[in-house]
Amino acid sequence: MLHIKTLDDGLEIFKALGSEIRIEIIKILLENRGMNMNELASRLNITNGALTNHIKKLEDCGIVSISNESAGHGNQKKCSVYLDKILIDMDAQEDFKNIYQTSLKVGHFTDYDVYPTCGIASGTALIGEVDDTRYFAHPGRYEADILWFTRGYVEYIVPNFIPCGQKIDQITVSLEISSEAPGINDVWPSDISFKLNGKKIATWTSPGDFGNVQGIFTPDWWYPNWNQYGLLKILVINKRGTFIDGLQVSDVTINEFDFDYHSTIKLKLEVENDAEHVGGLTIFGKSFGNYNQDIDVRINYSPIADFMGEGNAQDKSDCEPQPFS
Question: What is the reported pTM?
Answer without folding.
Answer: 0.77
